[in-house]
Hints:
The structure is a single chain. The protein is 64% helix and 15% strand. By secondary structure, the chain is α+β, with helices and mostly antiparallel strands. The protein folds into three domains: 3-89; 91-138; 141-197, Roll (Nucleotide Exchange Factor Grpe, Chain A, domain 2), CATH 2.30.22.10. The strands form two sheets. A three-stranded antiparallel sheet has the order 1-4-5. A hairpin with a 2-residue loop joins β4 and β5. α1 runs antiparallel to α2 (45-89).
Amino acid sequence: MSKKEDKTQNENKEVKDQVEEVIDNAIDEVEENSESTEESENTNESELSEEEKLKEEVQKEKDKFLRLFAEFENYKRRTSKERLELFKTANQEVMTAMLPVMDDFDRALNELKKSGDENLLTGIELIHNKLKETLKAKGLERMEVEQGEDFDSEIHEAITQMPAPSDKLKGKIVDVVEPGYKLGERIIRYPKVVTGK
């Protein structure tokens, strides 16, 4: 738990304690008033009604404080949830800018595998893996899409259609042109695919 959250919780506890203390003091005052009126033998109905009015007033104030406190708790919960969402997606612009770099690394690795230079390939793979793991630690996740999967317009972007190489691939994904990425639960780039017809 962060220092800010601890501080916020302590402040909330202090506010709650103060509200409860005010309510307790008001109840004590009403009880003292009721005891003093009971002790006096010359109580009349106007004093009793006044005591009842005070009790009602205290109850109204108590309800008011409880509602305010509940409203404040709801506000605090809502704003902390919004803040967490903001932190999760705050780096979306930076991540989107890094996606072409990831694509270039993938292309470079494919070409190096064809060249056969093992030392160069190992070095580039190390850098590529480090970049990929760093972005993954920040919430970036590659969407795994494979040939033969059903096309879903909610999560895939079809860039073209081509005749399916087999009947099994009709209406399905034939090729993935560009991988898609998610940042947390939000898709920041849809995978570009070719579908079979």
